[in-house]
Give the backbone structure.
Amino acid sequence: MKFILGALLLALMVSLAGWRWANHKVTTANRNIVQMQAALAADAVAISELQASGQRNERAQVVLRQQITAAGQLASRRNQTITRLLNENEALRRWYQSALPDDVVRLHTRPEFTNPGDYLRWLSESQQLPDTGKSPENQR
């Protein structure tokens, strides 16, 4: 009888230890599931935001392409108008084909800059324009 009682007590202790171990594993698994669900929810929000951003970018690209097309058409019309005016007016054609004054050419000429500091230094060191009271040597 003592043997049976001892065996029952031992079986009960083993069952209790097994139940505690299983309960711990289930608790750990549930905690992991909750953490994974939170991570998935955060990922779903991030994906949703990225999709919305992608759609906004696509719409912005469409608008920019339309603006580029409109600008190209405007430039083409402007060039056609200039060509038409040059063909119609001999004096305007001669003026358009003449060389720019030296000071204007110098204003359009500048070195390549690697950073804003170089540009500012170039601006401060560049030569001054002639006095407006003086007439330039190479007049158009």
Notes: The chain has a mean pLDDT of 85. The two ends are 127 Å apart (CA to CA). The longest helix spans residues 2-88.
